[in-house]
Write a structure and sequence with these properties.
homohexamer, 33% helix, Alpha-Beta Plaits, 156 residues, MoaC (chains A, B, C, D, E, F), alpha+beta, five-stranded antiparallel β-sheet, elongated
């Protein structure tokens, strides 16, 4: 039967013991999308293409958030990230963010990649919200993970 | 034409001047959903209902993240939040998080409400990821905002 | 009957709404003691008196912790502290820390003063732990508070 | 003669060099108690037993504080915690918190366990302070440590 | 005679009481320069002009650091910044950063503007250090301040 | 030709992959100076010599900032510092700060040493600014680095 590893036998939350796990190279890729009005999309495209800072701000926000993951997600272990990169691409209705995180550690970096995607997309929301308050962040999910005892995983 | 207020005339990002704006009571409500497998949902439901800590952990993560918004979203102003509450409810396919943030300040609290929703849902992901890595976070959006010069706004 | 204001009707934790409360000047004083072996006490006394940095390090730790209170105590509101001072005094068996915190805000600063005392004493523990691991932190409590709707309070 | 390792020959505080120390598995257990009025105790018991969130909030606060130890205690080294668990139990006059921290690192985790206990108890204070401002935090001390060059230690 | 306001009569550091001071609009402008080899300057110029992200990264670092000032400078009061903007310009030997900070508060924002300049220049150092380790940060100083009891000030 | 390693082929900033690099002992030494009026210098000297806390506050600020480097400099990797020490010395016109940082890690600690110097000097500025607003921070640079693939480096 399915169990939540973050809860002990009595149901109390704890940061699970990873002391006995091996240090291996781990990588995770996550993605997500922000959908917006044509007007907001054109403002962002303008800012990103003609002016420069828009995507850089969003990427930096995502990178810095990835490093804060264990501070944001209460039961995450602190991890020495060895890499974090965020890719942004326009779609017909908005922007897709894809984050790759890696570490040599005892637990995976799925949460780091997902946190980077979330904060990257929220930062784009923040920059375009004067134009469109109705933007929707959607499809945030893990694409793949590598390394660790549970092995590799690929989204269906 | 639509402009991004976070960029100055040369395209450089800055934290816009809100010094001249009035201090008013502001409130924002945001929501989002995490969809998961039946097995993960039953594990979460079990943890939340029978054991207690699951929803509490997610709520606390969201509350603490709301207070960190200006640290996470680079161009957000620091705001003295006067209230933050997070509501969690089961759906047939997962969990919906709804966050209400309020302040008496010079700028709105949309980003605080949205950040709370994001981190709350990521924390649920973290707790259930041993059961289901394919969960999807979706439909993160602003429901309403009150206060400030631009007035009240309600999602369509 | 006694109720916990940090829980809503359903028992969920939230950061209570202080939006409607008046901004008043608030002050709180808290204290606590660390008891140690004669050997540790003499090392600390030596370090504090002859060398200088010991008490300064503890005071700075307490001051910086007070500013982090809302980050450490999940349901605390962020508060713009207008003053924080920490007084350290030797006793026959250790060191007493007394912290005074003040703000002009909508909620009290009891937690800020108490957090400052805790972290100040833990920092002394840290500096003396190579000499004595058996030190005990004790008697941490609020001495007084002023301001706010509930009025002034003095420890018995 | 007893010396404070955190001070150099001139009395200046520094973060001591642990570069030459071996990476070993280290564990520390710390405890502490908060004493309160019967009325506050019954409110906490009510909140913890009937409603759920009270102990979860305190535990999460302690876990997150443990991860912030090197930020709070100025001369502590940053450490990749591999485990942190907090146990809460009612006594006749209040609540006892016991924290277990572990790492594979070059220095011990005593301060992490002690910081977790402190912030857990302060969070309980925060939740019950509307009922009883006279609560006292007491008996915070290390129970045991394992690992490292100085070997195992057990409180008397 | 000159006194350090951050020390009390006994020489102990404290965060001075600003509770009685009026809330006024305050602004500060600070500047600084990083000098580098021709090779590093051309790499930065290339990155900034042709590619976009270099200056954006440095600006975001400075903006986020300004918001962290009271966390970094121990005796600084937390301040709700209403504006922060960072201007970067090439010189013949490197890059000049100029930061403008503003608040409506009880103390000045000189430290916020100076902190922004420092971290902006350090971030440029970080990005160019693979090309030139001998870069020098110099001339960091306040250019002007406005508001508050001590009135306006202009660098000579 | 010189390239910025922090930018990928398209010019986007990322945290470069250090996963394949060896863990070696690394050390860096950085320095800087703050020049001030005779009046400010005498106030600082007074505070440092007669009273004690001035230099301790500055040193602690520098030590704590070094531990926050990866939070402040967006593309820096988190590093487990094994040592940080800050040396302060009076010159005829001000104070020189020299910081030594060390780690056993996959990247160097130059930024940690430089960040420590910057924040140490800013903290001295903060303590003396009531006496002299015209102080200038200057000559911040790396003195030496050891360890890592690129080998040892010494300032000319």
């Amino acid at each position: 039967m399915a169990n939540l590893t973050h809860l002990d036998a009595s149901g109390a939350a704890h940061m699970v013991d990873v002391g006995g796990k091996a240090v291996t190279t781990r990588e995770a890729v996550a993605t997500g999308h922000i959908a917006m009005s044509a007007q907001a999309l054109s403002a962002i495209r303008d800012g990103a293409v003609a002016k420069g800072d828009v995507f850089a701000v969003a990427r930096i926000a995502g990178i810095q958030a990835a490093k804060k993951t264990s501070e944001l997600i209460p039961l995450c272990h602190p991890l020495p990230l060895t890499r974090i990169a965020i890719d942004l691409a326009f779609t017909e209705t908005g922007v897709t963010a894809t984050a790759t995180a890696a570490t040599d550690g005892k637990t995976g970096v799925e949460m780091e990649a997902l946190t980077a995607v979330n904060i990257t997309l929220l930062t784009i929301y923040d920059m375009a919200k004067a134009v469109d308050k109705g933007m929707i962040i959607e499809g945030i999910r893990l694409l793949s993970k590598k390394g660790g005892k549970s092995g590799d995983w690929q989204a269906a």
